Amino acid sequence: MEEVDKILIHSLRQVGTEVGEDVLSVKQFSSELIVEAVVRCLRVIEPSLGSGLSHVLPPGMSARFRLGMSLAQACQDLGYKGEIGYQTFLYSNEPEIRSLLMFLVERLRRESAESSDQPAGKSALLQRAIGAKIKAQLSVPWVPPSFRVPFLCQAQTPGSSHGFHARPLSLPQSSKVSRTTPKELKEYCQEHLPPVTAQMSQQPSVPASLLEWHAAELSAALEWEGEWNSQGLVSRLTPEEYKARKRQRFQKRIQDQLRHAAQSRSDSQHASRSSSDLADLLRSFTGGAGGRDVLAKGTRFTHTEKFAFTQEPEKAAQQMTTAAESLPSSRRTEQDLQALQEEEVTSLQGQLEQLSLRIEEVGADVKKITVAISQVSDELKQKELGNAEKEQSLRVKKQTMDLLPDAENNLDKLQVLVEGSAKRVVSLASQWEKHRAPLIEEHRRLKELCSSRELESTRRLSEIKGLHEKIRQAAEEAKKKEGLYRQLMTEFETLPKDVSRSAYTQRILEIVGNIKKQKEEITKILSDTKDLQKEINSLTGKLDRTFAVTDELVFKDAKKDESVRKAYKYLAALHENCTQLIQTIEDTGTIMREIRDLEEQIETENGKKTVSNLEKILEDYKAIRQENSALAAKIREA
C-alpha cells in the first residue's frame, strides 16, 4: 500500500491539493485534507459538480454535515459504488478513503486521456473552458433573490445588458491584399487609423461590431471558396483572371442598365414632343381666324378656371361686406352674434363643398382629356404605319405600270435574268460541295479533338479537386498536430524539471521486479503445498493399507495366543491415538488460521480508528448540543 499511497499523493498534488511533505500515506490524512482533495478532484473531473462546493471544511457542525452529504452525493453521481456518506469525510478510515481516492484518481486519468483526443490549441482550450463555465452556471438552480446565499448572489445577479448595435469599422486589410495596396493607405493604417475601441462612440457597440465584421468576412470567404470550387475551376482560369472577368461582366451589365434607362428617358421626352406636335397639327387643321375662334371657345377646364379667378374679387368683396356686417355692435346681443357666426360657418361649408365638387369634376375632365390624347396618338401611329405600307405598294405598282407598255421584251429580259441566276446558283452549289467535304472532315476531326481534350480536362479537373481536398485535410491534420504539439509543450514546461526520468524508471523496474519475485515465491509456495498435500495423501493411504493388513494378520493370531490378543488391543489403541493426534493437529491449524484472520480484522478495525472516531463523534455531539442551546437562547430572546 505504500506505493499506492505515494501515487495517490502525487496525483493529488498535481490537481492542486496542498499535501504536506510529512504526509507519506493515506493514514495520515486529516478530515480537512480529505475534503480538499475530493473537492479539487471533483472540480477537475466534473466542474459542474465541484464548482459549488467549498474545499475548506467549515467550522460549524451543521455546515460540515451538509458539506459531507454534498460530497457523498457528488461522488455517487460520478459512479462510485462503495458505501459513502458524510461519515466517510468527517470520521474517515483508511480503507474507505484509499478506495475513494483511487476511484477519483482513476477518473482523473480517464478525463485526461479523453481530453488528449480532443483538438488542442489555445482556441480549443478556451472553448472548453467557456463550455465548462456555462455548463456549471446552467447546473445551478435559480433561486429567488430573497433566498440567495452569497455565492448565488454573485452568480445570478443580472448585470448591465446592452442591445446588439453594430457600427461600421475601418480595419486594415489582410496580408495578401496589403502587398498590392498603395503606400499612402499603408501609412494611414499604420499611423493615423484609430484602434477599434476608439472608433466607437459607445463601448458596448465594440463586440457587436467586431462580431458582425468577422461574420461578414467569414461568409465572404466561404462564398468565394464555394464559387471557385463550383465555377472557377470549371472556367480553367486563374483566380485573378476569373475575378477580372467577373468584374468586366458586372461593368457591362451596369452599362446596359444605364443605357436602357437613358433610352427610356429619351423616348419619354420624344413622346412629350410628339404630343406638342399633335397639338400644333390640330391647330393647323383649324386654320386662320376660324381656328382662333375655335380656340377662343375653350374647354370646360378653361371655363372653370376663368370662372374661379374672375369670381374671386366679387367673392372677396362679398366676404368683406359680410365681415363688416358681422362686427358686433353695442345693440346686438350675444345670441344674435352666435346665430350670425353659425350662418357664416354654414355658408362657408357650402362654398367649400362646391369647390370640392368643382375640383373633382376638373380632375375627371383632365383624366378624360389625357385618355383622349393617348388614343389620338395611337391612332396617329397606326395611320402612319398604314400610310408607309400603302406607299410601298404604290411604289411597286407604279414600277409595274411602267413596265406594261413593253411587256414582251421585259418578260424576255426577266426570263434571261432568272436563268442566269439559276445557273449561278448551280455553279455556286457545285463549288460549295467541293469545299464542303474537306470542311466537314476538318470539323469532325476538330470535334473529336475537342471532345478528347474535354475528357482530359474533366479528368484533370477531378484530380485537381481531389488534390485540393487532400491538401485541405492535410492542412487540418497539420493544424491539429500543431495544436497538440503546443499543448504538450505547455504541459512539459509546467512539469517540474528537478525530477529525473531515470529515477522514475528505476523505481518502476524495482516495483516490477518485486512483483515478479513475489509471484515466484507464491508459485513456489503453492507448488510446495501441492507436493506436501500429495505426500500427506499418499502416507495416509499407505498407513490405512498397512493398518488393514496388520490388523488382519494380528487378528488371526489373536484367536490362538493371549499375548497376541494384547498386542492387537495395543495396536488398535495406537491407531486411534494417532488418528486423534492428526485430528488435533488439523484443528490446531484451523484455529491458527482463524487467529490470523482475527488479528487481521483487529488490525483493520484499528486502522479504521474506531475509538478516535467515537471520541470525535461525542465531541461533535456536544458541539451540536451547544449550538442548539445557543440557537434556542437566541430564539427565546427574540
Helix-strand blueprint:
Elements: H1 2-14, H2 31-45, H3 47-50, H4 61-78, H5 86-90, H6 94-117, H7 122-139, H8 150-156, H9 175-178, H10 183-192, H11 196-199, H12 205-232, H13 239-286, H14 288-297, H15 300-325, H16 334-403, H17 407-494, H18 501-558, H19 562-607, H20 610-637
Category from helices, strands and their pairing: mainly alpha
Order of helices and strands: HHHHHHHHHHHHHHHHHHHH
Radius of gyration, rounded?
A: 57 Å
Helix content: over 70%
The strand count comes to: 0
Q: What percent of residues are in strands? A: under 5%
Mean pLDDT: 78
- The poorly predicted ranges are 273-279, 284-313, 326-331
Largest sheet: none
Tell the overall outline: elongated
**Number of helical regions:** 20
The end-to-end distance, rounded to whole angstroms, is 56 Å
InterPro entries: CCDC22, CCDC22_CC, CCDC22_N
GO biological process, one term: positive regulation of ubiquitin-dependent protein catabolic process
Protein name: Coiled-coil domain-containing protein 22
Biased composition (Low complexity): 260-277
Task: Give a short overview.
It is built from 20 helices and no strands.
Considering the chains and any ligands shown, give keywords for the structure.
mainly alpha, 638 residues
Structure, explained:
It is built from 20 helices and no strands. The protein is elongated, with a radius of gyration of 57 Å. The two termini are 56 Å apart. The chain is mainly alpha-helical. α13 crosses α14 and α18 packs antiparallel against α19. It has helices at residues 2-14, 31-45, 47-50, 61-78, 86-90, 94-117, 122-139, 150-156, 175-178, 183-192, 196-199, 205-232, 239-286, 288-297, 300-325, 334-403, 407-494, 501-558, 562-607, 610-637.
